[in-house]
Design brief:
- With 180 residues, the protein is an alpha+beta fold.
- It has one domain.
- Helix content is 26%, strand content 38%.
- It has helices at residues 11-24, 124-130, 133-158, and strands at 2-9, 34-41, 47-57, 67-87, 90-109.
- The protein has a five-stranded antiparallel beta sheet with strand order 1-5-4-3-2, with helices on one face.
- Helix 1 runs antiparallel to helix 3.
- It starts with a strand and ends in a 22-residue tail after the last helix.
Length: 180
């Protein structure tokens, strides 16, 4: 899923909001999630960023190591330039430009969690098809909802239209997007 935004916003606050949302939901590697950070300054003063995150999470109420939620997040910002915005008679520093955030979720199933030397290895294929299929479908729904909540929190921060049936909690940072 992709979120595109082109206007005045607070890049640092967006970054922090996303980081704290992941940390609050107990995603692993939330503190050392950044796999790539590139920054390029063009001749006209605009900055381009390419940032990649990778986070993981074990689902609740499932055997450790059997399933894993993973999410790859990629920021790509173009023509980011400083901009001063007047809000309620005060000048506030922000940036103007375009940002694209791609979220790629994965549900990993560890078929090797079963010991291949045991008697149960013979029934592994049948067991995964018959017994674990409802559990996998429930995990997909749980993960789908969590990823859309994450997308909704980003859209709420950027004041974009959301398509969630329920309202997310208040953002970590008060929104300073223009217009607020």
């Amino acid at each position: 899923m992709t979120i595109k935004y082109k206007d005045v916003f607070y890049f640092e606050d967006l970054y922090k909001t996303m980081h704290w949302w992941l940390a609050d939901r107990r995603w692993e590697h939330a503190d050392q999630h950044e796999k790539l950070y590139l920054e390029k300054v063009s001749q006209d003063g605009g900055t381009e960023h390419l940032i990649r995150w990778h986070v993981e999470k074990d689902p609740q109420d499932s055997p450790k190591g059997m399933y894993k939620f993973t999410m790859d997040i990629e920021f790509h910002s173009l023509a980011i330039k400083p901009k001063e915005v007047v809000v309620e008679g005060k000048k506030i520093g922000a940036v103007i430009g375009e940002v694209e955030i791609k979220i790629t979720p994965f549900l990993l199933i560890n078929h090797d969690a079963w010991n291949n030397d045991s008697i149960f290895a013979v029934f592994k294929g049948w067991f995964f098809k018959r017994h674990f299929k409802p559990r996998i479908e429930a995990l997909k729904l749980e993960y789908y909802n969590e990823v859309y909540e994450f997308q909704g929190s980003i859209k709420k921060f950027l004041q974009l239209k959301q398509f969630l049936p329920h309202q997310d909690q208040e953002p970590f940072h008060p929104s300073r997007s223009y217009p607020s």
